Amino acid sequence: EENLLNTIFKTCDTESTGHVAVAKIIEFVQLTISCGSEDSGLQELHTMLDPERRDLSIDMDTYQAIMCEWIEHRRTKHLCYRADDVETQDELKAVDVPEFVLAEPSTNMTRFSLQARKPAWGDRETSDLISCIADLQHTHMRLLEDNMKLKGSREMADELNAKLVEQIDTLSMQLRSSQVLLQRDESLKDEIEELKRSLAKVEEEHAHTNVLNKQLKKDNLQLTSNMTTLQDEVVKLRSENDFLCKQEIESGITMEDIKKQLQELEAVAAERNNLLFEQRNNHLKEMMETVSEY
Hints:
It is a single chain. The chain has 294 residues and is mainly alpha-helical. It is built from nine helices and two strands. A two-stranded antiparallel ribbon has the order 1-2. Helix 1 (2-12) packs across helix 4 (60-84), helix 3 packs antiparallel against helix 4 (60-84) and helix 8 (124-251) runs antiparallel to helix 9. The protein is rod-shaped, with a radius of gyration of 64 Å.
């Protein structure tokens, strides 16, 4: 009887949590003994397992204690009915009392002994119930084996998952490094573009400076030419001065007049020379200021 109760509990405890919902136990017993949900025996069992009908879940010890109490109560009740009316025994067994309740308790009920044992009352329903319980035990063992296989598969999956997590972490680090390198590359590209723009600007300024230098050289040549012209004019003036001196001597002009005229001519020549030099210096100064600005 204890082995039978354990089998029912383990069959209902599909997830091996050690707790089973009362409604699940009632449903299993109902299907096993083929009775309606309004059966008085099932209602009594439901009340004993869950007095307040709160959809409780119970453990193995509580389940066994209450089930043993209920079986004993139903057995006693059945014996009382037998004493009153023997003719109603078959009806009571089929409706109110499960066959494993009517059977005598056994301490050595295993899977094979359940199959070999004959019903206490020679009833076919009891034989079917015992056969069903044996099948359930076999199914339970197979489920345990499947569960072990699933646990092994789960452990392998956990190991694979851990490896995948490590690979993901490694790839994430590589991705971050690549992103940093890409950012640096973009920064270098921006710096290179900025340098290119600066270089283009410097080249443009250099070209402009070359143009100014060429202009300065041209102006310098022009000034040099002007200086040469002035020198030629000075020579010419001196020649004229000499000629005038001769004419003065010849015409009786005194030396003082000649000197005075010569001084005037030299003053004029010096003034023109100073003016040209001043113009040249001013022009050079303006050109240098322009170059400095660029």
